[in-house]
Amino acid sequence: MTSNSSRATHKILVDADSCPVRDIIIKIASDIKTSVVFVASISHLISCDNEYVQVITVDNIPQSADMAVINHTNAGDIVVTGDYGLASLALTRGAIPVSSRGFIFTPTNIDRLLLQRHIDTKIRRGGGRTKGPRALTEADRQNFERVLMKLLKKQARNNLDI
């Protein structure tokens, strides 16, 4: 039997270089007293004066923020990212990756997303054009907040199970 005090506390890790929902994450983290780790490159300097938020700044080298996020990720953590590659790595660590629109990446959908990213990259390298993501809406922000709260409540319930 495992006591609650010996269980690891899950956290929220954020690929923060271009995260449009940092304000929502900080508010929720403060409200429910959960740890957040923002990881950003030095070219996207972030500061946050909140006891629940840690900011990690990495070199401006491709994939350095992703590697820092993964190196701090444990099973059950929530990883906020729009990067399919990072989402895939988070899944292998047993984490729950979610986009800033509230889309939860799963083992079922990640392969299709990675394949589409590969196809789009080949089209662009060949001189073609592909659609980028649509602008984030207020409905997207609300959906993200709802999904994040749902995931955090699920984590809390799992931590109470003995």
Descriptive report:
- The protein is an alpha/beta fold and 162 residues long.
- It has helices spanning 22-32, 64-71, 84-92, 110-125, 138-160, and strands at 12-15, 36-41, 53-58, 78-80, 96-98.
- The protein has a domain at 9-106 and 139-150: Rossmann fold.
Portion of residues in beta strands equals 5-15%
Distance between the termini: 7 Å
* Mean pLDDT across all amino acids: 89
The helix fraction, in percent, is 40-55%
Strand line-up in the sheet with most strands: 3-2-1-4-5
| Tally of contiguous helical segments | 5
Q: Could you state the oligomeric state of the chains shown?
A: single chain
The string of secondary-structure elements, in order, is EHEEHEHEHH
CATH architecture of the domain at 9-106 and 139-150: 3-Layer(aba) Sandwich
Tell me, what's the shape? globular
Low-confidence stretches: 1-7
Number of strands: 5
**What structural class do helix, strand and pairing data support?**
alpha/beta
Largest sheet: 5 strands, parallel
Could you name the CATH topology of the domain at 9-106 and 139-150?
A: Rossmann fold
State Rg: 16 Å
- CATH class division of the domain at 9-106 and 139-150: Alpha Beta
